[in-house]
Structures are given as structure tokens and as C-alpha cells.
Amino acid sequence: MIRIYFAALVCVAIFLSYFIGIHVGNVRCNTRIAESNIEHIVRDAKIMEKTNEVVYHTGTADVRRILHEKYTIAE
Prior knowledge:
- The chain is 87% helix and 0% strand.
- By secondary structure, the chain is mainly alpha-helical.
- It has one domain (2-70).
């Protein structure tokens, strides 16, 4: 009788370890995807900052000067 209980206990342990393994795998996958998304967001923010650096550091007087130099009426 003890052998039957032991075999049943081993089967239950294998069954539970299978489902726990699936859960751990899903959690790791979700963590990896979240980290990847964070890296993409940070990378995109850095690209936008580099792209708009001229706009961030350009004052109104500089914009007027640049537009005046590029778009004056030539005689």
C-alpha cells in the first residue's frame, strides 16, 4: 500500500513540476519582453533627443537669422 502511495506522490510531484516549469518559463519570457520594450523606448527617446537637439538649443533670434539668410529676396 505504501508503494502505491509513493508512486502516486511521485506522479503528482512530476505533474506539479511540469506546470510550475511552464509558469516559470512564461514569467521569464514576459520579463525578457518587458526589458526589451524598455530598451526600445530608451533608444527611441535618445534618438529623438539627438534629432531635436538643434530645436532644443535654438533660440528665436537664431531661427530668425537662419530664415533671413536662407529666404531673402535676391536682387
